[in-house]
Structure formats: C-alpha cells, structure tokens
Write a structure and sequence with these properties.
single chain; about 180 residues; mainly alpha; Protein Binding, DinI Protein, Chain A; three-stranded parallel β-sheet
Length: about 180
C-alpha cells in the first residue's frame, strides 16, 4: 500500500508540475497496470518451480512423520516401562525424550524455513524476468509507471488513462 501511495504521489507531482509551465497543457501521463501474481503464475517455468517446492515439502513431511513415529514408539516404551525403571534410568529416559522432542520441534521449524527459502530462490529469476519484461513494455509504450493491481490496491482505474498490460505481458513471457 505504501508503495502505491508513493507511486501515486510521484504521478500527481509530475502532473501538477507539468501543468504549471507557461500555461501549456501537460501531456497526459500514462501508466500501465496488471496483476503481478497472475502474470507470475502464467509463466511456464512457474509450474515447474512449484512442483519442485511441492516435492521438497512432501520430503519434509515424510521425514516429520518418520521422526514423530520414532518419538511415539520411544514414548510408548517409556510409559510401559516407567514403573519398573530405577529412578536414575527413569530420569535419563525422560531427559532423552525431552531432548528428542525439542530436536523434532527445531527440525519442523527449520524445515518450514528451508521451504520458504527454496521458494524465494526458485521464484527470484522468474520475478527478475517479469520485472524486465514490464520495464521493456513500459518504455515501449511510454508509460511512467506500472501498477500492481493485486490485493485490490486499485479498485478503479480509468481505462482511458491506463493501459492494461496483462495479456501482452503473458504473451511476451510465454514466447521466451
């Protein structure tokens, strides 16, 4: 939202500043708009990267299940034998279970972070390519800026002032 306000302020200041020069009407400042997420997900490489992330997530989930199963087996064995254990063995087993549970919690947290990092890295080249395509089209059509309409950031855009770039961006990205 803040970025949109900065862009609109810049656009407004350009328009106001341009209109005050010798009473010559300023040329209309043109802008483009599109859904960045829709353009990103329309890229052919996006589906491939998402499949890689899905495979990574499944691998982590299988390992989490295995670790949880291992913990449950050890916990059940502990419960079954706790009446018969001498106090020192009982305390040792409790400590082992607590450490194992803590390692499992840390593994889950690290796994979630690894998946997020992998997704960020996988999408980085796609976003760079999309941004370069947007810059090229903006220069081609003389656009002052390109607005991302995701998140209902722009509930209304006057079609005579703005240019919808969605279809052309998708076409360009699918050709490369």
């Amino acid at each position: 939202m803040r970025q949109l306000l900065i862009c609109l302020f810049a656009l407004l200041s350009l328009t106001v500043g341009a209109q005050t020069v010798d009473s010559i009407p300023a040329p209309a400042i043109r802008f483009g708009y599109l859904s960045y997420d829709a353009a990103l997900t329309a890229m052919p490489q996006y589906a491939i990267e998402q499949q890689k992330i899905k495979n990574l997530r499944e691998a982590y989930n299988k390992e989490v299940e295995r670790v949880e199963s291992e913990f449950n087996q050890k916990y059940e064995a502990f419960l079954e034998g706790q009446r018969d254990f001498p106090r020192t063995i009982l305390l040792k087993r409790q400590t082992e279970l607590q450490q194992l549970m803590q390692r499992n919690i840390e593994f889950k947290a690290q796994g979630r972070q690894d998946i997020l990092d992998a997704e960020t890295e996988a999408l980085k080249p796609l976003k760079i390519r999309l941004n370069e395509t947007l810059a090229t089209l903006a220069r081609k059509y003389g656009l002052a800026l390109v607005i991302n309409t995701d998140g209902n950031a722009c509930p209304f855009i006057e079609p005579t002032l703005g240019m919808n770039l969605q279809d052309e961006v998708t076409t360009v990205l699918n050709k490369k």
